[in-house]
Specification:
The chain is α+β, with helices and mostly antiparallel strands. It has one domain: Ribonuclease Z/Hydroxyacylglutathione hydrolase-like (Metallo-beta-lactamase, Chain A), CATH 3.60.15.10. The chain has helices spanning about 25, 45-50, 95-105, 120-130, 220-230, 250-265, and strands at about 5, 10-15, 40, 50-60, 60-65, 75-80, 85-90, 110, 135, 150-155, 160, 165-170, 175-180, 190-195, 200, 205, 210, 215, 235-240, 245. A hairpin with a 4-residue loop joins strand 17 and strand 18. Helix 5 runs antiparallel to helix 6 (about 250-265). It is globular and about 55 Å long. The relative contact order is 0.12.
């Protein structure tokens, strides 16, 4: 039986003879259902008209994306490290070409997911590399639509994955996380942020939202928590969820300055981070 994929958010569902009646990810107020109604596709159908493209971002890091863009349109990242490569975030399509390319670079030892909008076809990605573990924060376990043995739910505020560290920030989702990789940016460190810390089009600032498509902001305590979560880590570069959304230099300063700008914009009584 097929495993249907939501065409709006890209989430893959368990095997079923008929399409699911609902997509809880899209029906949540952070996402949306098209006016035309929920639509569904399958991996093999998607592969007929789309492919996975690859771009080297820097030494030790490559970005991957579906072309033409599908569903939310996020990119994933292959983080290369001596303790085993990590796939950061996922999307809906897994094809033979990209699996072969990644295997040439040593495969992957783990998958790490920032938040539920990027669960997509994570179990297919895991299976393609021998059932490697998928690390998801336990606070977001309720959003998993297709259970599987590869899922590993972690708790607390940090999870070490070799030299890299998953950092729970919250905000966009309760378990929303970023990945810190100290070896990137020439040793200056990088954050891979998904939507938890969103790089905006000017590539000088970031922002923070409960819902991006529906423009629901976060409250002051959530902003302060995000800033405090990443403050102990050194990083020059921030890689956001979408193509071109990268801050190459001064990433740590950009987070602090952007948080202050955000606090001023929402009219907080204390527009400082001290």
């Amino acid at each position: 039986m097929p495993r249907f994929i939501c065409s709006t958010c890209g989430t893959q569902y368990p095997e079923s003879a008929a399409t699911p009646e609902h997509c809880p990810i899209c029906e949540d107020e952070r996402q949306w259902v098209p006016a035309s109604g929920q639509a569904w596709t399958r991996m093999e159908t998607l592969a007929k008209h789309h492919q996975v493209v690859w771009e080297k971002e820097e030494e030790g890091l490559c970005s991957l994306a579906i072309e033409p863009s599908f569903a939310i349109g996020q990119r994933a990242f292959l983080v290369r490290q001596k303790d085993g490569n990590i796939l950061w975030d996922c999307f809906s399509l897994v094809d033979d070409a990209i699996v072969g390319k990644i295997r040439e670079l040593g495969g992957i030892s783990a998958i790490a997911i920032s938040h539920p909008h990027y669960y997509s076809s994570m179990l297919e990605w895991s299976a393609a590399f021998g059932g490697v573990p998928i690390h998801i924060h336990a606070d977001d376990a309720e959003w998993v639509q297709r259970p599987g043995d590869a899922l590993e739910f972690w708790s607390g505020d940090r999870l070490a994955l070799g030299e890299a560290t998953m950092i729970r920030c919250g905000g966009h989702f309760a378990g929303a996380s970023v990945l810190h990789v100290p070896s990137l940016a020439g040793g200056g460190g990088a954050l891979l942020t998904g939507d938890t810390i969103q790089v905006v089009p000017d590539r000088k600032h970031v922002s923070f939202m409960y819902s991006y498509p529906n423009l629901i902001p976060l409250a002051e305590p959530a902003i302060r928590k995000i800033v405090e979560a990443v403050r102990p880590f050194a990083f020059e570069t921030i890689y956001g969820a979408f193509e071109g959304r990268t801050i190459r230099k001064g990433g740590k300063q950009a987070v602090e300055a952007s948080a202050l700008r955000y606090l001023r914009a929402i009219g907080t009584d204390n527009p400082t981070l001290d």
